[in-house]
């Protein structure tokens, strides 16, 4: 496979094609008959998947730097270029995007019954923004894709959402747009200061990173500007309040995209930009304690709030805040293990939470309710859905043998040397996670069958099985054999740690922990 991809020059065109295909699909959908809209979206999504999955084999795991790089002039007078590329950190995010794309389209097959052309056009626009964020190596291009995502998500929630959709959409746009404006100011200031020092005014990521020492005097406010934009997107406590509303009111496709990709943009932003540009301030003892402390507060708080949610979708939304807290803890753990664990948690959360939102959407299509109390005893009438939900719930709470365990375990052991008390507190959430997820599973599927409306709910159909099967298969694969993913992220994680290590304060305990044969 690798030799074939090399023979067709795969590395020279694949990233461009992944960005262009959805753009070509958008006008086709708008000009097509309504009944053809979802088919065009599905074909585009399958093409994206078929072409994009080749990145798994074409990517050189031994190369820790950027690969598939293209650097073309765009607005040369302003230092803006079309610069794209990926490394081990962004590789998995791109792959997650292309894998989920056809599942999201197929998963919304029956749930969208009005304005279908607009819905699928916006869905493809959102895919362009998602992929663009992870492949952009130009800060201007990155900001364009970052902002592009706001528009389709706003309309997806506001038009196809539930009863309080306008409130949720407005809250989402206000939170994220304010943070984005601060980031824009920080980007312009960086370009100006680095340009003044070097004589080259450029938005190129590598140029800014190579001259990041120039930014040290403005480190505190640059970090705050970036951190606010990314913290809202994560979302990090206490900037999380928009997420439960957005998740609850969004259509299934919107909830899945939020969980699988959009939330990862915030944690990716910290790894790629906020910390590497101003590492001295970002990794100082005070900043580290504040950020990791907020992460752990979010982990515990969101888990406790999830336990009392009557709405199944809102419960899963709060679980996302808790899971992403582990990612933030791993990032500030600042070891190869913790960073790889953080990346793996991002992937695992996308799979398990995406599957949960799919199944909640399937239940809603049948019963038009998400209230846990409206269900009960569904195992009797929907055994396949029950099995899928139980496996996914176990994955979400981190049961060994499933994907959720590996990433969180690496985060905890990798961060322990730097933040032993916070890691100890975060570890207790395993109990809370099991409590809220298993209790909800029991009440929906295994309690007494008391509501006659659930009698004809029906089990999973072929389309729903096809949507859930690859996600559940991936949960077992990553849980039992995470090695291939870890090998592809190891080089980038080590390079990241080498970049920031001169700025790391001394760890509380000796570390990082290393594994392997004694020397």
Please describe the topology of this protein.
Elements: H1 2-7, H2 10-31, H3 34-52, H4 55-58, E1 67-75, E2 80-86, H5 88-107, H6 116-135, H7 139-148, H8 150-160, H9 165-198, H10 205-210, H11 219-233, H12 242-249, H13 252-277, H14 279-282, H15 285-306, H16 312-333, H17 336-367, H18 383-397, H19 403-415, H20 420-427, H21 429-446, H22 462-480, H23 483-500
Antiparallel strand pairs: 1-2
Helix pairs in contact: 2-3, 2-6, 3-5, 3-6, 5-6, 5-13, 5-17, 5-22, 5-23, 6-7, 6-8, 6-13, 7-9, 8-9, 9-11, 9-12, 11-13, 12-13, 12-16, 13-16, 13-17, 15-16, 15-20, 15-21, 16-17, 16-19, 16-21, 17-18, 17-19, 17-22, 17-23, 18-21, 19-22
Characterization of this structure:
This protein has 519 residues and is mostly helical. The protein has a domain at 285-514. It has helices at residues 2-7, 10-31, 34-52, 55-58, 88-107, 116-135, 139-148, 150-160, 165-198, 205-210, 219-233, 242-249, 252-277, 279-282, 285-306, 312-333, 336-367, 383-397, 403-415, 420-427, 429-446, 462-480, 483-500, and strands at residues 67-75, 80-86. The longest helix has 34 residues, at 165-198. It is globular. The two termini are 36 Å apart.
Task: Kindly summarize this structure in a few lines.
By secondary structure, this protein is mainly alpha-helical. It is built from 23 helices and two strands.
